[in-house]
């Protein structure tokens, strides 16, 4: 079964990768979002390193406390509200409920929107790579894991979460340009256009 996709208005989408690379080069604040396992964290880290942007991981810096304990929602929002005031960053994380404060401070959005089977594969291969350890973009003490609930989240992401992202972007960032990366090839091409870290 194919992913059923709700999409952004054409005027907001950047489809030319060269144009997207120019936006990224000049952007001071970028949102990186998408389904787990799609590669948004890897891409965000590479862009942060390439352009000297502060890397903010919602998973590591906002949502999780050690041992996969969820931080209080009010505290989460306070942390995001504080971090978005910084001058230059790339914020890695989807979280539709905070788009109202994140998007108005953003110059550009990169939505890593890979097919769900690729995201499932990405999550499982990431787990295999980091088994028994914590990834750098996760909170300390959050050992890499994959369970049925997480795989179901990935499988239903387009159906349940993508419409909330589209609505959030329309409501809170209607003038913020958005690049959707829908294949690994597009991601590699973008990175090639951006060049390697100095």
Protein described:
Helix 1 packs across helix 10. This protein has a six-stranded parallel beta sheet. A two-stranded antiparallel sheet has the order 4-5. The chain has helices at 17-26, 40-51, 58-63, 73-83, 99-102, 116-130, 148-155, 157-160, 162-172, 184-194; strands at 13-14, 29-34, 54-57, 64-65, 69-70, 89-92, 108-112, 178-181. The chain has a single domain (10-192), classed as P-loop containing nucleotide triphosphate hydrolases (Rossmann fold, 3-Layer(aba) Sandwich). It has ten helices and eight strands. The chain is α/β, with parallel strands linked by helices. This is AAA family ATPase.
Write down how many β-strands occur, each being a DSSP E stretch of 2 or more residues: 8
User: What is the makeup of the main sheet?
Assistant: 6 strands, parallel
Strand order of the largest sheet: 1-8-7-2-6-3
CATH class: Alpha Beta
Distance between the termini: 43 Å
Oligomeric description of these chains: single chain
